[in-house]
Amino acid sequence: MKRTMRTMQRLAVAGLLAASTQLSAVAAQAETTVRMWTFLNPEGTSPRELALNQIIENFEAANPEIDVVVEPQVWDQMTPKFLAAHSAGNAPDIIWVVTDLLGEALGSGALADLNPLFLDSWPEEAIKERQDGYWERCAWEGGVHCLFHSRNYYGVIYRKDFLSEAGIDPASLTDWPAFIEAGKKLTKRDDSGNVSRWGFGQQFSEDRADAQMMTSVMLSRQGDLFHEDGRAMWANPIGAEALKLQTDMVTEHEITPPQAVTWSAEDLYEQFAAGRLAMFTGAVVRVSTMQAKVGKENVGFMIWPGVDGKPHSPAVMAGWAVGVWSGSKQIDEAAKFLEYMAGPEADKLWIEVGGQIPASAKNMSEMTDFFAKPENQYIVEAAKGIASYGWISPVKFAVGGYRQALNKAAQNVLSGGMDPMEALEEAEKRFNQQNRR
Description:
- By secondary structure, this protein is an alpha/beta fold.
- The protein contains 20 helices and 12 strands.
- The protein folds into 2 domains: 33-152 and 319-374, Periplasmic binding protein-like II (D-Maltodextrin-Binding Protein, domain 2, 3-Layer(aba) Sandwich); 153-317 and 391-434, D-Maltodextrin-Binding Protein, domain 2.
- The chain has helices at residues 2-29, 47-62, 75-88, 102-107, 114-117, 124-128, 133-138, 160-165, 176-186, 213-222, 237-251, 265-273, 287-294, 331-341, 344-352, 361-366, 368-372, 377-388, 402-414, 420-434; strands spanning 32-38, 66-72, 94-98, 139-140, 143-144, 147-159, 188-189, 195-201, 277-283, 299-302, 315-324, 390-392.
- Strands 1, 2, 3, 6, 7, 8, 9, 10, 11 and 12 form a 10-stranded mixed beta sheet that branches.
């Protein structure tokens, strides 16, 4: 009996040791942790966050030895923080770089060449369908150092129901006089003159500044925002007219609230969700979030009105250049996740769950039923804008701070009483000095 008990005890101990060994082996397989910095939180509830969460779950299920850990960052501070971490040797394995500072990231050597990591093994047709303006920005010194996600395009986000009630067809707003008249019609005042809804929201704070409508006017007439050496190209008659058109929306036409001087981009989305804006300067990547707040059927997106008889003006293309840190100790595992996140399966999740513009042109042509739905027309409109009316920041020199400088010029006109040309001269000087040009 005692022998039997001892045998059972020994078997039990052996079983525990075996189980412990198996657990250790499993733990050892799962020890590779890939850190990623992005502004998205996979625990969040926005469409893009839900898509990212699903993408990570799918990847980890197929690759149990790799643990992807997201460390959410403040979007406009993330890239400078990454560049500092690169210099200190403790950067994350994967980084989402803001477009304006991509040139600085590439020039610093912080982003690994993706060709030997995985792009060399991609079929030629997969490469060709992605070789657009975004791909060109990632090409550097013979390599490809990033892939763009959350492809963005700035235009006008609007309430379909408000425009419909006012009898306004958004397709008819192809010049600024028509747009301004629509803004007046959409602005609602009570008997005392108090405004309950503004026709057109803008933001001129330097905090979390987005590209404003004056950039589209300048791009339409002069083709660029910078000289070939990177100096600002704003303080000229074209820039002054564009800034006046923008600020007249506040002072003369009264379709943009005076509070625009202090509003950030986030304030615009909050005001729109609350029904206090009929149209506003917005990023197409945020349309799906606005749809979740006020109804898919109520939110639309349009390309900027044109000037000089053109149907539309060019707009700023943006997005996030996602790359692998060149100093990563988990560079192969990080590249494996980035490859999956950019692949066809994940791209469909970005589109269907996240409401984003496809990275793959093939998905754009194949998902016809999805894009035919009225609530998804904003993606088609933005894709048209990118193809025919887009401008993306150059990478041969850093242009970080240009949006803030132009917003400061608008502040100086509206609050400081400056002439538009004077305000732009000051903005140019500030930007050029900041960037040592």
